Amino acid sequence: MPRPWRRRHLGTEADRATFRTLHNASLAAPPLRAGLTGESAERSIRHLHDLLGSPALAITDTAGSLAWHGSGQHHEEQCARLAATTVEAGRTRVFDRGDLPCDVAGCEIRAAVVSPLVTEERVVGTLQVFAAQPTAGLARAADEVALWVGAQLELAELDASRTRLMEAEVRAMRAQISPHFIYNSLGAIASFVRTDPDRARDLLTEFADFTRYSFRRHGEYTTLAEELRSVERYLLLEQARFGDRLRVTLRIAPEVLPVAVPFLCIQPLVENAVRHGLESAEGGGSISIVARDQDHECVIEVEDDGVGEDPDVVRRALAGDASLDSVGLGNVDGRLRSTFGDDYGLVVETAPGAGTKVTVRVPKFAPGVEVGVLS
Question: Any idea where the Histidine kinase/HSP90-like ATPase domain is (predicted)?
């Protein structure tokens, strides 16, 4: 007969205390990763309060209280003064009954341990732990939790800095979209106005959609489907100018279309293929764009049979040499590495007279890489 099920002992009390501590820390971390704000303080303070087990807890910026949790909330009005004293000292301060005047009968708060919250060697706020009396253990616990909160806030600063850097790189990428391409596209459209007005209208729509995609507000990432749709518009406009001299082949596996990629990471590679590979080639040439599923990765290849390039020049372009007339190879390479790691930089195969092949690999799923809402 099967043995009856019994609730098993889940470790020692020390094991359970460790689990509770880790659990509360894991719940407090996500809000703090948004930075020190009233909202993040309100969302994290309950878990920090549970972590410390004191009668009350407050989180402040350098000016005053952002959130309070626990008993004795009438003491919250004293938080600004305690914060100012601690920020000025730059270290943990202990405040006794004389610093916390109170005429509420039965109030258990008679002391406070206030620790600075430090990010990048700058005090941005305080963690204030209120109790019946200060103890060495409470002071040490407040210090440790404040250090941990500061580390989460530093990660938030790093996330914000990374976002600002990515936005600056995309702005730089937009600035590198060739003015010659815009001028030539409008010239090609104008040439069809009299001879083929329907085609001129269609091309003008494609041009408008291409520029709208390239210059509108967006998140850091888009889908491969959106990026390739912009590439198709670009090539339609170039084919209007080159005619039969520009031959295009696309082979796209449907299963990789939803994969998230950095915004404007494929179109610059195609523009390079046209400008440097085919524009100066007698008789034009061919461009092939392949996107395929490879286990946990998506592989995109942009290949032309044009004039090719000196590998040393490519190395300089990937290093970001601004003196080269290259549409963002270094920019795209840097953003891929920043997003997915150094294993995901561009791979460029080329030689004079041998054409050029650029390979992009991206993981199909990557933590923190999500497609934002385009507007």
Answer: 261-366
